[in-house]
Request: fold
Amino acid sequence: MATGEYPFVIGTAGHIDHGKTALVRALSGVDCDRLTEEKKRGMTIELGFAPLLLPSGKTVSIVDVPGHEKFIRQMVAGAAGIDAVMLVIAADDGVMPQTKEHLEILTLLGIKNGITVINKVDLVDEEMLELAKDDVISLISGTFLEGCPIVPVSAMTGEGLPELKNVLQHLVDSTTQKSRKGAFFLPVDRAFHISGFGTVVTGTAFNGVLCEGDELEVLPAKTIAKVRSIQVHGESVQSASAGQRVAVNLANISLEDVRRGDVIAAKGHFSPTECIDVKVRVLRSFPEALEHWQRLRLHVGTSDVVVRISLLDRDKIAPGECAVAQLLPEEPLTVSLNSRFILRTYSPLHTVAGGVVLLPLGERPKNKATKGALIKYLTEISGDTDSKEWLRALLEYKGMIKMEHLLFLMEADISEIRGNISSLEMKGRIGVIKTTDTTIVSMSKLEELRETLLAVLAKFHKDHPERKGMDFDEAGRALSISEAKFIKELLKLMQKLSWITIDDDRVRLNDFAPFDESLFLANVSAVRDRIKAAGYSMPTIEETSSILKISQSDMTRIIAYMKERKELVIIGAGFLLLSEIAEDFRDKLKSIDGDITLAVVRDLTGSSRKYSLPLLEYFDSKGITRRVGDKRILLKK
Reply:
């Protein structure tokens, strides 16, 4: 950071020819009319930036923005990154139409601090100056500037400038800066080439810190560039922070790959979007309502793009009202969380509304239920919400979010996100599933999964009381979760919450008492041995149950168990046959040279007609054999 550099941006606003540029020059010694066209036309077309040395020794940034109506987009680009404003009004002209529009735009952009400067006092007498003051007081009544200092000055003679600098000093000292935590984000307002250096971009950093050697993404193209050097107000520095006017010399990128409206940002924290969740307020002074699906011009950061507005819970927004909505740009756009924006009518150009970005990477609702959830979420976070509650609300809306995706949605330092996650987890308001990709789960989503699992387990226990519980794969399928590590950790979390019990990698209800598995398996073994010993003289279910003294209900479970394992087939009205013996019978059929008759099968198996006939009929039903008169033919060899 440059010596005495303080990350604070003061912006000018006001009507054309009211002396904003002259005032900046008088305060800073820097002429912001840097372009030939600006010199020729006598107006500020592009944004001008200058360092302002305050009496305390602090150096802040002052932004000179255009005042002509045609250059509103540049004005928005400058105002979007400022901490406070100087509204400049010429004493000889008074309040003009663009003065009012600029004040409305500043309000929409969330500017809350500033002063009013009455310039050109050298051109009016005392009576005229008092009229100008009354005009100003009327203008700022009910706005964020009401009650703030009104300072008369002359940029040409220097009258009032010392007092203005003292007022600005107090403004800086008493104003809480915007929160600028998080990943680095800088909308590009200029890009140019310097021989021997390469590509240089300039802009006002909205968030984070930038250091020499950092790798950045140029968005929306997602081109990777490296920071070769940094300047703040023409002075080379090792790093720059949010709130500063920054020039960045980029390596590994050509001038053709970056332009005004692009963003340079920390890698892995931002992504282009084609759907932005927002809160919109229509100007009270605008004569018409803002309608659903209306085509508008969106000014955000340094971007100027055409969008459609999708109103989520109404058909139109009346003047003075606000609502949550989605903006759908006609080209990919990169915006930052909590960015302020302006909406203008497509043609003719009139400022109609503004607002704040609630979620940069929005998703169009797929149905009525998802739309309702989205409206609830956006409404909840549309007020002043701290990052922890914002995270909780986001999780309630999304249900589950992987940490990697969360970085894109929150745009915060990973340490801050982890701190918020840890705090919410300790309070039992979220769950954390730690696998290769850590997943954060809302409590409502966990409870939804719990209800599903408990219902599935209750049915499973009823159908399989002999088993200790479901294995992890079965539980995963029940919850439509295929990732083995994830389901394992999820089930462990549910056990930690005392919702289920895990025993020998089996999941069960807490109050479920399984059958004695060792006894059950012993009975299975006894049944298996009995059926095997009988061979083709197949025992019935009733016979087996009676001889082995196994209850009918237990016998039913044993048969289900063996069938599930594909050990057993049921022949006819209740004969039991091991699958291995059935396969042996199929091989015997293949070995028959002549006709397949009941007598041949009886002799082949050493059994009676009582068993041979049901066996053949079973194979008929499976399409392995087919009866033709008193004989059968083999269909599947």
Summary: Residues 35-46 have pLDDT under 50 and may be disordered. The CA atoms of residues 527 and 544 lie 7 Å apart. The chain has four domains: 5-174, 185-266, 398-514, 517-634.
